[in-house]
Design brief:
With 280 residues, the chain is of the alpha/beta class. The protein is built from nine helices and ten strands.
Amino acid sequence: MWHSSLSEEDTIKHSADKPLLQVTDLSKTYVRSRWPFGAKVHVKALDSVSFTLEAGSSIAFVGESGSGKSTLGMCISRLLEADSGKVLMNGTDLFSLSGTSLREVRSKLQLVFQDAATSFNPTFTAGQVICEPMVIRAIGSRAEQQQRAIDLMERVGLPVDSISRSPMQFSGGQRQRLAIARALAADAEVIILDEALSGLDMSVQADIANLLLTVQAERRLALIYISHDMELAGYLADEIAVMSEGRIVERGLSSRLLQRPEHPQTQALINAMLSFESQT
C-alpha cells in the first residue's frame, strides 16, 4: 500500500516569484473522419486546462483512458500543438518560440514515457543516450560528457559497466532509470512522466518512485505525473488533478482527495483502486 507523503494538515507553499511552469486555458480538439462516409468528428481532448507548478513541487493528472491527460503532457512540451492557451516556462511563452530558442527552453522540460525505449535512438548505446542532450547543446568536452554519463548512471542505480550496452538489453525498469538519467543530463527543471511506472513490477515501481522523490528533493525538480493509478499518484505527488473529458473536475492535496473525494469521477477511481487491492 502506497502512502501519501503529505499529511492532511500540510499545505502547498507557493513562492512570491513567478511559477516555474504556468499553463493557462490549454485546449486541444482532434478532428477525425468517421468511416465509411468520411464525416468529420470533433473530439475535445483538452478543454481550458490551467495550473501552475513551482520548483520542487509535483502534481499528478489522473483519469481514465481518453480523459486527456496524455494529450496535456504532449501539448505542454509541444510534441503536439495546442489549439489555444499558453504555457509559460520561467515566464517565457513556449508557444511563441521556434527553432533554437524553442529547443533551448524545451530542453528544460523533459518527458519520460511508459516505454522509454520508444524515445531512444535504437542505434545508440546507453552512454550515448545519456550524452545526447549534452551533445545537442554543446555542453562540455567529449570526455566531460562521458564522465557525466557515468556519474548519472551511478546516480540512478545503473551498473556503469553497462554504459556500452544497447538500451534494448536492459529491463523495463532499467530503461526507465536510463530515461531519467538522460533528463537529468539535460539539466531539466520539469520532468513529465507519462505512465512511466505503469507495467513495472511493484518492487521495481517502488524503487523508481523513491528514486524520483530523492532526485526531486536534491535538484528541486518540478514533476508532472500522468497516471491512471490514484494510489501511486498520491504517493508521488503533492497535488492530484482528476481529469474527465478534457477538463480538471477535481483538484487538491493528495491526502485530501484520497481520503475525502468529492467528484463522482474521483470517487470512481478510488473505488476501482480499492477493488483492485481487495483482489490482490
